Amino acid sequence: MSLKFVAAIVLCIVATAMGAVADPTASQDLTARADCDVDSAVPFFRAYSTSATDHFYTTNYAEMKNAITNLSYSYEGNMGLIFRIPTVSTALLYRLYSPNAFDHFYTTNQSEANNAVRELAYYDEGAAGYVFQTEICGSVPLYRLYSASAMDHFYTTSETERGNAISQLGYSDEGIACYVMPGL
Predict the structure, then answer these.
(1) 3-state secondary structure of 146
(2) Count of CA atoms in the C-beta half-sphere (13 A) of 79
(3) Which spans in 125-167 are helix H?
(4) Strand pairing partners for 103?
(5) Residue 34 pLDDT exceeds 50
């Protein structure tokens, strides 16, 4: 056995013998701090291509720069902050692409992602990042919309932009895709 392991056992035995009791709120506080540690969150950039009628999102600045410089996308800002690596309370945001529809599709639902690949001819492009699945730590909804006529998925944190896309641009509301930290 390692010396650290033996020391930990001895410490537990001594604490128990002395009548030490764990403070239940202490672990809750630690969990809350871990859940809301957003120091490693990065911008989730958004761009749009009028020629492809496609919204594109990424955390990778070089990839966004390439889309703008070489692929006829226009930068539209960032949709909040997400994580490049998993953290406490986050879920994988799948990134998929259909070359037939010129559409990027993002979801936290693995079954939905698998179905898009198997049945709808999307390619799995890996992880877009990691996001919250519930509203915690001051996060905001990332709304998901879809235009069947344009074959375009559209994501926004703006309720005004969401409402305009539904009432003026023919998008249908597909609910909340996930929760992200508010943008810079």
Answers:
(1) strand
(2) 33
(3) 159-167
(4) 98
(5) no
